[in-house]
């Protein structure tokens, strides 16, 4: 961690869990018989797509905004998002009375864009299709306006909420779980889950699922340092597009057991599979973890596994494109 940066700790995760209790949903664990048969071990789905705002991102955003100072609350915050973090910040800002400005890529999903507006946020659509370049604009506005920039992932409070509290719930509900199958983009959820689970059980396994066009975690391992920026790639799974955080990679670099890569065709097939098998509408980013299971990319499981279904926010046009092709 950089000097002066708050660190992710079990105490911080416990604090996040205490704050979020009663403010968000405790989402269910649902068994998946078909995946269990295919992977040769019991498999459950952690259905965060049923979460408030439609994704796990409410956990980290709500907790992070709750820790703003009084002057910061009065001035408001700036953030960048592919959609779900922005929607979560908008919701948390409305609940806490904080003005929220969100920069989004030009490729933002329409459902996520409309959701942010409906919750009262100011939303600025970038001329850039990529997350990384859009984040530059958001950070520049934050500097000029003197408002804090709230990272969607590279922040200890966000990691504690997004991944830490999620892992805590999973282990409380399924103490025998050994393997965690998680979509990873910037790494906020992944780092929180990996930190908590590996601290509680050193034998736990963490499997990171990424898109092959922009696998920030994989590239980071190859370079030996965080790949915080990557060339933009064409994908329906915008939530896992772009680079990884420096802080999140520092946590993940010693806690990742396997990286599973998938492509858009496999993600679309997994999207349709979830409708057929579990009757859940999920977003393409969430389907990446299912795709990794269906394609055998997660490898041999060491025991009972949980697949995190990260969100459901997806535009009607995207749904029709996936289902009708």
Describe the structure in brief.
The chain is of the alpha/beta class. Helix content is 46%, strand content 14%. Strand 3, helix 5 and strand 4 form a beta-alpha-beta unit.
Per-chain topology:
Elements: H1 10-20, E1 29-31, H2 33-39, E2 43-47, H3 57-66, H4 70-75, E3 77-80, H5 84-96, E4 100-104, H6 110-118, E5 122-125, H7 131-145, E6 149-150, H8 156-173, E7 179-183, H9 188-200, E8 205-211, H10 216-223, H11 246-252, E9 258-262, H12 264-278, H13 284-294, E10 305-309, H14 316-323
Parallel strand pairs: 2-10, 3-4, 3-6, 4-5, 7-8, 7-10, 8-9
Antiparallel strand pairs: 1-2
Helix pairs in contact: 1-8, 3-5, 3-8, 5-6, 8-9, 9-11, 12-13
Descriptive account of the structure:
The protein is built from 14 helices and ten strands. α1 packs across α8 (156-173). With 325 residues, the protein is of the alpha/beta class. The strands form two sheets. It has a six-stranded mixed beta sheet, sandwiched between helices. A four-stranded parallel beta sheet has the order 5-4-3-6, with helices on both faces. The protein folds into two domains: 10-56 and 155-323, Rossmann fold, CATH 3.40.50; 58-150, Rossmann fold, CATH 3.40.50. The longest helix is centred in the middle third of the chain and has 18 residues, at 156-173. The protein has helices spanning 10-20, 33-39, 57-66, 70-75, 84-96, 110-118, 131-145, 156-173, 188-200, 216-223, 246-252, 264-278, 284-294, 316-323, and strands at residues 29-31, 43-47, 77-80, 100-104, 122-125, 149-150, 179-183, 205-211, 258-262, 305-309. 54% of the residues are buried. The mean pLDDT is 95. The radius of gyration is 18 Å and the shape is globular.
């Amino acid at each position: 961690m950089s000097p002066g940066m708050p660190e992710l700790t079990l105490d911080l995760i416990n604090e996040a869990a205490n704050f979020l209790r009663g403010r968000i949903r405790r989402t269910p664990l649902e068994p998946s018989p078909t995946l269990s048969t295919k992977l040769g071990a019991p498999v459950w789905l952690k259905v965060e797509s049923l979460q408030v705002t439609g994704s796990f991102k409410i956990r980290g955003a709500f907790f992070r905004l709750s820790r703003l100072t009084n002057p910061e609350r009065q001035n408001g915050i700036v953030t960048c998002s592919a959609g779900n973090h922005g929607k979560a910040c908008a919701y948390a800002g409305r609940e806490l009375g904080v003005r929220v400005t969100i920069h989004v890529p030009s490729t933002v999903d329409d459902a996520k864009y409309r959701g942010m507006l409906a919750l009262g946020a100011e939303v600025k659509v970038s001329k850039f299709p990529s997350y990384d370049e859009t984040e530059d604009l958001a950070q520049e506005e934050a500097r000029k306006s003197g408002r804090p920039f709230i990272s969607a992932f590279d922040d200890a409070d966000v990691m504690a909420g997004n991944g830490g509290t999620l892992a805590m719930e999973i282990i409380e509900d399924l103490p025998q779980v050994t393997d965690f199958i998680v979509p990873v983009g910037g790494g906020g959820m992944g780092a929180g889950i990996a930190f908590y689970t590996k601290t509680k059980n050193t034998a736990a396994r963490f499997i990171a699922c990424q898109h092959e066009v922009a696998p920030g975690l994989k590239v980071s391992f190859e370079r030996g340092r965080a790949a915080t920026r990557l060339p933009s790639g064409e994908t329906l799974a915008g939530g896992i597009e772009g680079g990884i955080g420096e802080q999140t990679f520092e946590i993940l670099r010693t806690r990742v057991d396997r990286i599973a890569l998938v492509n858009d065709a496999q993600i679309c097939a997994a999207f349709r599979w979830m409708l057929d098998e579990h009757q859940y509408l999920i977003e393409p980013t969430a389907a990446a973890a299912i795709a990794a299971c269906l394609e055998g990319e997660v490898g041999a499981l060491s025991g009972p596994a949980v697949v995190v279904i990260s969100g459901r926010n997806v535009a009607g046009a995207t749904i029709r494109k996936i289902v009708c092709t």
